[in-house]
Design brief:
Largest sheet: 4 strands, mixed
Distance between the termini: 28 Å
Structural class: alpha+beta
Shape: globular
Strand content: 15-25%
Number of strands: 4
Helix content: 25-40%
């Protein structure tokens, strides 16, 4: 979940212009500006690895329902780098990104989430946002939503 830590993908840190350790805030106003940055960086892959170790309780619960091709034989990856972002869950076969929104998603993150969703859409991915509360209260319904959005029967 990229929401725990804000990355600055236009920062000189990623381009090698300033010493490592300097960070800024990421604001994407136009998703088309970032079409060339389709590959994940070593920094985002390392960040994704640390996020896999620090999954939130609703993410852990949903992962237990998705892992091992349990949903119609589709393979999901958790905390997967996609271009310049990290998705909570991603199925490449279905081009589906599943984001669990909850405690880390505050009102000040709504614009960031909209920009991120627009970028994902521009890359040909569909984004399904699930509330953490729904994962706890209705996991079967959440899995059915994922199945429906993945295009599975």
């Amino acid at each position: 979940m990229i929401h725990r830590k804000t990355l600055d993908f236009s920062s000189p840190v990623l381009t090698g212009e300033v010493p490592e350790g300097r960070r800024g805030s990421f604001r994407m106003t136009n998703p088309k500006e970032y079409r060339d940055r389709k590959r994940s960086t070593a920094q985002s892959r390392g960040h994704a690895k640390s996020l896999r170790r620090e999954m939130s309780p609703p993410e852990v619960l949903l992962w237990s329902a998705l892992r091992g091709r349990k949903v119609d034989g589709l393979k999901f990856r958790r905390q997967a780098p996609i271009g310049i972002f990290i998705a909570d869950f991603y199925c490449h076969e279905a081009r589906l990104v599943v984001e669990v929104d909850g405690g880390f998603h505050r009102d000040d993150r709504l614009e960031h989430d909209r920009n991120r969703d627009a970028w994902m859409d521009a890359q040909g991915n569909r984004v399904l946002r699930i509330q953490a509360r729904d994962v706890f209260e209705n996991l079967d319904g959440v899995v059915q939503s994922i199945r429906r959005d993945s295009g599975s029967p």
